[in-house]
Amino acid sequence: MKRLEDYVRTIPDFPEPGIMFRDVTTVIQDPDGFRLAVDTMADLVKDLDYDVVVGAESRGFIFGAPLAYNNNKSFVLIRKKGKLPCETVEESYELEYGTATIEMHKDSIKPGDKVLVVDDLIATGGTTEAMCKLIEKLGGETVGVVVLMELAGLKGREKLSCPLFAAITYEGK
Fold first, then answer.
1. Fold that domain 47-170 belongs to in CATH
2. Backbone phi, then psi, for 119, in 5-degree steps?
3. Nearest 5°: phi and psi at 82?
4. Is the pLDDT score of 96 beyond 80?
């Protein structure tokens, strides 16, 4: 039986020299890899008490929606600024070169909701930290973050005030 890591394609020197790019597309293109990824992530948070699953555009949708569905939870979208049609709250955060802004509908999280954040990857933690801040703005509590891959060398985990669960951890960048 293949391990989850066996489904991840590593592309050296992309997008720049010295970077080892971890490609999630090879995981989700393979039915066994995709099932293993979702099942592994679900198993990591099986004892976590949460009401709502939140996923960020776009790969957070891929892994978050099946987790929400399988556990009979609602699923909330976080999108890039300007993509949601109703009243939103927003959070800006730093990128390597500039800033980005994400939004979620103002009525998507209720005060007191316990929220699980799902994404494909945590690197520096900027996007994940911004998602948690959005949840807090609406009165929710982020009780955990689950990702397919963690790039531990970039120390994104250190920006979080809740537990991080990673199906795969790469020690480098």
1. Rossmann fold (3.40.50)
2. -150, 170
3. 90, 5
4. no
Q: Whole-model pTM?
A: 0.95
Q: Which residues are catalytic?
A: 59, 96
pLDDT of residue 56: 93
Predicted confidence at residue 173, as pLDDT, reads 65
The number of beta carbons lying within 10 Å of the beta carbon of residue 172 is 11
Confidence of residue 121 (pLDDT cuts 50, 70, 90): very high
Q: Are 102 and 79 in contact (CB under 8 A)?
A: yes
